[in-house]
């Protein structure tokens, strides 16, 4: 009988501790984010360079400058090199809260190999975690303390290939500044420079008209 009461007491204490930890978890996360200098996400944007296969993706938010002062900041930026210059934006979805930000982007790129199918879809899902200060794409997680700029390409199967650059943009920078920063960092990458300078405006009207 005594052992049963003891086990019951241990169970009750355990449940109380779990409930307490669950209740204070948001406070602990918020305190950690403040102290670590992580960006609290609140928005994302896509910048298209017309006629090129380039998309600049950014997630922005606020960072605690001091305990009581917030400032605009950038969580991360991704420089996406789509397979072909002829590409249409095909949707963007965001799921966000105070500590995480999940973006899913889709594009239709011209398919010259498969008969009867003019476009194929490529997709990118990026998960930003403010508490861990990480970005997860596919099965890999990247620590943003090592740099918050990424170059993303796609293989023949439409899967993203990610390169993390040893560089950081802390402020909420203008799109053109972000583009020029990536262009400079990739100045020795011949394939990237070729795509950056590519121009094909034939897809523009097709995207506007909803042609697939």
Report what the structure shows:
- This protein is α+β, with helices and mostly antiparallel strands.
- The chain has one domain (40-208).
- It contains four helices and ten strands.
- It has helices spanning 2-36, 175-185, 190-196, 202-208, and strands at 40-48, 54-66, 69-81, 87-96, 100-110, 119-129, 134-137, 140-143, 149-154, 160-165.
- The strands form two sheets. A five-stranded mixed beta sheet has the order 1-2-3-9-10, sandwiched between helices.
- The chain is globular.
- The relative contact order is 0.16.
- Residues 20-25 have low confidence and may be disordered.
Strand order of the largest sheet: 1-2-3-9-10
Shape: globular
Q: Work out the helix count.
A: 4
Mean pLDDT: 78
Radius of gyration: 22 Å
Strand content: 35-45%
Which regions contain 5 or more consecutive residues with pLDDT less than 50? 20-25
Largest sheet entry: 5 strands, mixed
Assign a percent range to the helix content: 25-40%
Count of distinct structural domains: 1
The string of secondary-structure elements, in order, is: HEEEEEEEEEEHHH
Termini, distance in Å? 73 Å
Number of E strands: 10
- Counting helices, strands and paired strands, the structural category is alpha+beta
């Amino acid at each position: 009988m005594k052992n049963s009461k003891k086990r019951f007491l241990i169970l009750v204490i355990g449940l109380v501790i779990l409930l307490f930890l669950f209740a204070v978890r948001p406070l602990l996360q918020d305190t950690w984010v403040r102290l670590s200098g992580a960006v609290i996400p609140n928005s994302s944007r896509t910048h298209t360079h017309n006629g090129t296969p380039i998309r600049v993706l950014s997630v922005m938010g606020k960072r605690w400058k001091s305990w009581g002062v917030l400032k605009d900041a950038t969580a991360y930026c991704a420089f996406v090199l789509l397979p072909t210059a002829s590409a249409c934006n095909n949707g963007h979805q965001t799921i966000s809260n105070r500590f995480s930000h999940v973006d899913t982007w889709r594009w239709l790129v011209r398919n010259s190999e498969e008969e009867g199918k003019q476009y194929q879809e490529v997709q990118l899902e990026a998960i930003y975690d403010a508490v861990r200060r990480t970005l997860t794409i596919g099965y890999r997680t990247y620590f943003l303390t090592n740099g918050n700029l990424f170059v993303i390409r796609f293989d023949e199967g439409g899967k993203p290939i990610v390169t993390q650059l040893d560089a950081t943009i802390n402020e909420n920078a203008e799109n053109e500044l972000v583009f020029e920063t990536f262009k400079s960092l990739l100045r020795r990458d011949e394939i990237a420079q070729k795509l950056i300078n590519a121009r094909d405006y034939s897809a523009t009207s097709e995207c506007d008209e909803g042609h697939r």
